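[job 0412] stage=complex_fold ligand=adenosine-5'-triphosphate status=START
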Amino acid sequence: MATFQAPKGTYDLIPPVSVKYLAVREAIAAPLRNSGYGYIETPGFEDVGLFARGVGESTDIVSKEMYAFETKGGDQLALRPEGTASVLRAALEASLHKKGNLPVKLWYSGSYYRYEKPQAGRYRHFSQVGAEAIGAEDPALDAELIILADQAYRSLGLRNFRILLNSLGDKECRPVYREALQSFLSGLDLDEETVRRAEINPLRVLDDKRRDVQKQLVGAPMLRDYLCDACKAYHEEVRALVTAAGVVFEDDEKLVRGLDYYTRTTFEFVHDGLGSQSAVGGGGRYDGLSEMIGGPALPSVGWALGVDRTVLALEAEGVDLDIPASTSVFAVALGEEARRVLFGKVTELRRAGVAADFSYGGKGLKGSMKDANRSGARFTVVAGERDLAEGVVQLKDMESGEQAPVALADLVATVQARLA
Ligand code: ATP
Ligand code: MG
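[job 0412] stage=complex_fold status=DONE, emitting structure tokens
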């Protein structure tokens, strides 16, 4: 019989490595929970139109990377390629914006799907933790999100990441710039696809990673020189607030992003140890998105951090996450009666909040002790018939190697006291 493998561009998270992913998600979520963001969860698929309109027909995400399909009932759906459009859709549907408590601050964590060319750091199924602050135009919100991402990465021990910051202007100044850029691009020697891109979304040509394109872009008009006074003032305030928080960033006037909905503040977190898949996260302000998907004007800002790439960045920096062993006590029973008694004690320990595991599968002492070692447990509890006859178990401290009998009735309290 043929065996199965994970589909191309996907991989499984398997112990012990999988704990790193949990730790990264938790580290990103912690500062958000601590800053007024409420948890939101949306479906893994949506009406394909939500992404076509929200993310933009001209983006790679929608035009090339989306898993779109028709259901048996004839609905046109797509696996979600990103989180923002779904979160905004859900917030509008639940009328969160009408309940007078703007901004609505939400965070999420989940799987996203893009039909990409798989390579290190680029998968077809990947995981993000994201945050959105919906319904307020306030530079302090943009600053808050940048500061919280910085805090998350630092709490994990990452150091070699950089924050790139730019402003994309708004509906006043961006069209003027767009036209200037388009007329510049029309004078260049570009391939057909890039010419088409220049027509639909010229800003994204600036983001082209190819060297021959970048060479030709020298001297291109820069958005910075076209920003209207309101956008300039807004951007200066964001910069000042982030700087005051002691968070270092780099102004990157070429930074644009792959999604159409961004306005004003745009940022990306890059890590220098990751080769060409260097972006560990990104985000920005998307003042027009709500209207694009049929809602009222709701100026908003958000980011999404890639969990997979953050784990790769930790590995690139050689950061060992300080993840405690998950088991504190490992119980080894010798004989049927001891099995019954110790299994009961393991249940008691667990109910008392002590992480405990048991030697299953009827192994002898040697095999069971191997399991105990592998579990990383601080204590091993061993008991045979003779111990039980005396009403004790042997409690072994796996760090010091010391072993002593403990009365069966005192086991839970003793372990709790020694772990404290
Ligand atoms: P890239 O330029 O690398 O394609 P992106 O701009 O498409 O990234 P976003 O849509 O901003 O990425 O998603 C935010 C983060 O999610 C990225 O910075 C990255 O860490 C992660 N990410 C995006 N696509 C993938 C993928 N295919 N595989 C793994 N992580 C991804
Ligand atoms: Mg991409």
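The longest helix spans residues 139-155.
[job 0412] exit 0
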